[in-house]
Write a structure and sequence with these properties.
The protein is about 40% helix and about 25% strand. By secondary structure, the chain is α+β, with helices and mostly antiparallel strands. It is elongated and about 85 Å long.
Length: about 375
């Protein structure tokens, strides 16, 4: 109880500190606006380079004048000279600012900038005495004032729920998150290229449907006022894609958002992206070949390799994907042979022996799926067709 009280007190103190910092930042903004230097009226800044380009091409760019922009993430030294780290979309670079270049008045304004402020600056590419690739700033402009403080660099944004709810903050302060977003975008582009190169046609299927179909899931329901009828956000793209096949398109795919009005956890979202594809004149073996080819192509194009770390494991896309039935896996990992279990009663008895809870609605196939979920799913590390 005492610890709970302290947590509440500490949380309240932290919130008060954040409010005070936000108030100070707003006062700074008001002062800038009163001076006619409103940062939110600046609508354009032409960059000539960025942090990664400068570092990767330093030998060519050293001594040249470049214009870059980004968010201030740290500041060191607040007198006649200052160092700070500028973060843009792809990385960070150090800035060196001194009063001899800016003048007394502008240097004072620069020293009042806050962590999180977005600036554009022009300067000379150079290397410090310590060997740090940097930009010696000759002039700068405040492009946007950060009126709320960022999480501190040591604590960061660690609460998982807060990270998901405030992705924009997570991208700013958590290393690697922006890279994940960029890799996801590249993966989507690669998926499209893979299918386009094979002659597939991308079809946009309706998101609003008059019936719920293509999968078993609880839909989101909305109302169409003009038609005075309820409609459903799609839970799958299957039915409309198959109609495209019926209509004479031989290879089709759709990649887009699906909506399912069901439970939420770290691996289930009410809206998510799926890819469905259909092809005439082939069979399940052909579709597995397409899927395996897709996974290998995207993995290699996005990461540059065929073996990818995932937690403590290495996912190997270089080998042929294993193909195995559910009954084989259950026999291997649970010691139960469902090929010999013919009735629901026999399946219930096997479940009872293995402490698997069965409901009245569960049939033999449902119980088989319960065994698979309990004993097999967690063992499937490498790419596998089940």
């Amino acid at each position: 109880m005492a610890q709970d009280i302290m947590n509440v007190i500490n949380a309240g103190t932290e919130q008060q500190d954040l409010s005070e910092q936000a108030l100070i930042r707003r006062e700074k903004l008001a002062a800038l606006q009163a001076e006619g230097r409103d940062p939110f009226l600046q609508i354009r800044f032409e960059k000539t380079s960025d942090s990664v380009t400068i570092k990767e091409n330093f030998d060519e760019l050293e001594g040249s004048t470049q214009k870059i922009a980004g968010r201030i993430m740290s500041k060191r030294g607040m007198g006649k000279a200052s160092f700070c780290d500028l973060q843009d979309q792809d990385g960070r670079i150090q800035l060196y600012v001194q009063v001899d270049d800016l003048g007394e008045e502008e240097m004072e304004r620069f020293n009042k900038l806050d962590i999180g402020d977005i600036i554009g600056c022009e300067g000379v590419v150079f290397r410090t005495k310590r060997g740090e690739m940097s930009l010696h700033v000759k002039n700068y402009i405040l492009l946007s004032k950060s009126v709320r403080p960022l999480p501190d660099k040591w604590g960061g944004l660690k609460d998982p729920d807060l990270r998901y709810r405030q992705r924009y903050v997570d991208m700013i302060v958590t290393p690697g998150v922006r890279e994940t977003f960029k890799k996801r975008a590249k993966a989507l582009a690669c998926i499209r290229k893979y299918f386009d190169d094979l002659g597939y046609i991308e079809c946009e299927t309706p998101i609003l449907n008059t019936v719920q179909g293509g999968a078993t899931a609880r839909p989101f329901i909305t109302h169409h006022n003009a038609l005075n009828m309820d409609m459903y956000l799609r839970i799958a793209t299957e039915l409309h894609l198959k109609r495209c096949i019926v209509g004479g398109l031989e290879r089709v795919y759709d990649m887009g958002r699906i909506f399912r009005n069901e439970g939420m956890d770290a691996t289930h979202n009410p809206e998510f992206t799926t890819i469905e594809f259909y092809e005439a004149y082939t069979d399940i073996e052909g579709m597995m070949e397409r899927t395996e080819g897709l996974m290998k192509y995207v993995a290699h194009e996005v990461t540059g390799g065929d073996q990818l770390p995932y937690g403590e494991d290495i996912i190997d896309f270089s080998k042929p994907f294993e193909r195995v039935s559910m009954t084989e896996l259950i026999r291997k990992h649970a010691g139960v042979d469902f090929d010999k279990i013919r009735t629901r009663e026999e399946a219930v008895a096997a479940a009872k022996e293995h402490n698997i809870e069965v409901e009245d609605r569960h049939l033999r196939g449902d119980i088989l799926a319960l065994f698979f979920e309990e004993y097999c799913e967690k063992k499937l590390i490498q790419p596998t067709f089940v």
